[in-house]
Amino acid sequence: MSEYSVSPAGERFELPQAADYAPELQRLETLVGAARAEGKEIVVVMGVGFVGSVMAAIIADTVDRKTGKPSKFVIGCDLPSPRSYWKVPLLNCGQSPVKAEDPEVDPMIARCVNEKKTLVATYNNDCLKLADCVVVDIQCDYTKHQLGNMCDGGVEMTALEATMRTIGEKIGGNCLVLIETTVAPGTTEFVAWPIMKKAFAKRGIDSAPLLSHSFERVMPGREYVSSIRDFWRVCSGCTPEARDRVVKFLTEVLNTEKFPLTVMDRPIESETTKIVENSYRATTLAFLNEWSIFAERNGVDLIKVINAIRMRPTHSNMIFPGPGIGGYCLPKDGGLGYWAYKHILGFEDGDEVFQLTPTAININDTRGLHVAELTRDALRNMGRYIAGAQVLICGASYRQDVGDTRYSGSEMVVRKLTEMGAEMRIHDPYVDHWYELEQQDTYPAPGHSWSRFFRNQDGLVHSAVEKDLPQAIQGAEAVILAVPHEPYLKLDPDQIVQWAGAPLAVIDCFGILPDDKIRRYFELGCEVKALGRGHIQRIKQEVRDQALARETARTVDPVAHLVPIQSGI
Ligand SMILES: NC(=O)c1ccc[n+]([C@@H]2O[C@H](COP(=O)([O-])OP(=O)(O)OC[C@H]3O[C@@H](n4cnc5c(N)ncnc54)[C@H](O)[C@@H]3O)[C@@H](O)[C@H]2O)c1
Asked: What gap in Å lies between CA 208 and CA 187, rounded to an integer?
């Protein structure tokens, strides 16, 4: 029976059969023959997911700086599996497998596939035999077994190890291999290189594999391509020859004139750079969680505190943590370092050495739970229960103005509130499908969904992301402003209450509401709560006092009732 791979848009592609492999290799050999005749270098990109598909297009778009002619022919290779195969036929039609806000992605892929004819995709990893250079962009996940306990997790090395074995079994001895995947420090030299050396030895190749490492710093959003091509890179090689080759390759494909390369002595140094860079970011964000709680309980607006601190140039990159720290990298990368220390590098004192990074990740992973508490309390202040309440969350993605929902704080909020019995609605202008909910049994992989940490999650597979805010908010008893998407910054309290049909609880997770809007919500009879914004109580009291003063004035002076009073407090 035929098996299919279904794209996120619902297109079904039949998986290749055994008989398809030989003609597919012939097709590639013909294309490679023609490309070689034109002097092009043949590059295979392993894994055409979020990173690999765009990196493949950037390489395929490369031109010889002297002649201006395309200098690389790229084969993007992915697995013939139900989960991933659909990316191959899509790419071969010139369509991007990733949905990106960057307007450069779609035309660049279409141009390379259809016009320049420098990019093709395949499921047949025999294409490795044709490569001058292989770029590895497959995933290397860190699985946590408990919510809020990073140390209990582990790195999933199987895919990477299998891929490195396949590469070692198929490439020529002179082929450069570049690992771009974010890996546990030590992986390139102490896991991947030995695997490849073994494979080379079996094949009678006596040279050392030319293995190098250079991690990606890609950022989802409108600068997606630029964040790969026009950005600083760090690289290293297992041998001086591998290092020279990777420097040459990256200099050709990236904008290294403006964004110079940093060349490290050993791969463990470039691998550690990525892990420390992201652990640093995760830690500084987590650090603000305790001050956020302090602020909430002591009448302080942490947003204003941060803005005051940011005036100092040395502290200008301090940012408010929101309801959680999502994206693919920050929640996992520190775990790769913690795990490597024990399992690759052989130290047993990881729990003593690593104090901050695991704590930071645990804090970030669970910060969204507090938003559920705030929502419950806001509704309680209005005399309502969270169980059965209609709650709208505005923003499903992990950061503003992107549609990337991976490990978003909003998911934690939705799951916790669902567990508590709330009826959740979702709005996001940038997200069409929230696969973490809709396909929670299989996405990101079977058994990996955050649904496993909560009860009462089954109904979330029927979640739909609304695009029409007035409709989504109609009848809502609480609205959670979870992500500072541009359209949410402009929302008018009077309009919101009018759309909702009655005063409602408003929960601000990201410092979205300025004080005048908070005040207006209170005047309209709403309840407002926010992460890290204790001064809200003061505003509430002021509105209450003013209402009381008006009330008193009206009893003393009967004409005072002509002043419009809208407060429901
Ligand atoms: N996505 C980001 O925002 C981002 C940012 C910086 C770094 N990274 C790193 O880049 C790496 C890739 O991430 P991603 O987001 O592209 O992952 P992804 O899951 O979107 O893509 C990985 C792809 O590799 C494929 N694959 C796995 N094994 C394979 C094999 N043997 N042969 C061919 N293909 C294979 C998978 O099928 C999948 O399509 C990760 O290490 C990640 O940490 C990602």
From this structure: 17
Looking at the fold, whether 212 and 89 belong to one and the same domain comes out as: yes
| Threshold 0.85, pTM exceeds | yes
Q: Is the pLDDT of residue 565 over 50?
A: no
Place of tokens 């050993």: 266
3-state SS class at 199:
helix
Does residue 99 register a pLDDT over 90?
no
Taking 60 as the threshold, does the pLDDT of residue 158 lie above it?
yes
22 confidence band (pLDDT: 50, 70, 90): very high
Residues 310, 166: one domain?
Answer: no
What per-residue confidence (pLDDT) applies to 554? 85
Report pLDDT digits (tens) over 285-323.
Answer: 999 999 999 999 999 999 999 999 999 999 999 999 999
Q: Which of 48, 78, 99 to mutate to test the pocket of ligand 1 (most atoms within 8 A of CB)?
A: 78
Q: CA 532, CA 314: separation in Å to the nearest integer?
A: 23
| Tokens coding 194 | 């030995």
Supply the range of the domain harboring residue 441: 287-314+373-538
Distance 48 CA to ligand 1 centre (A): 7
Q: Are residues 238 and 299 in the same domain?
A: no
- Angle, vertex CA 499, rays to CA 494 and CA 504, nearest 5: 70
User: Are residue 249 and residue 119 in the same domain, yes or no?
Assistant: yes
105-124 pLDDT, tens per residue?
Answer: 999 999 999 999 999 999 99
Q: Measured between alpha carbons, how far is 283 from 205 in angstroms, rounded to an integer?
A: 45
Ligand 1, residues at Cβ distance < 6 Å: 46-52, 77-79, 84, 87, 137-140, 159, 162-163, 181-182, 216, 218, 220, 328-329
Q: What is the mean pLDDT of the chain?
A: 96
426-459: buried (b, 16+ CB within 10 Å) or exposed (e) per residue? bbbbbbebbbbbbebeebbeeebbbbebbeebee
**Domain total in the chain:** 2
Cross-strand partners of 235 = 263
How large is the angle between the packed helices 356-381 and 267-297, nearest 10 degrees?
30
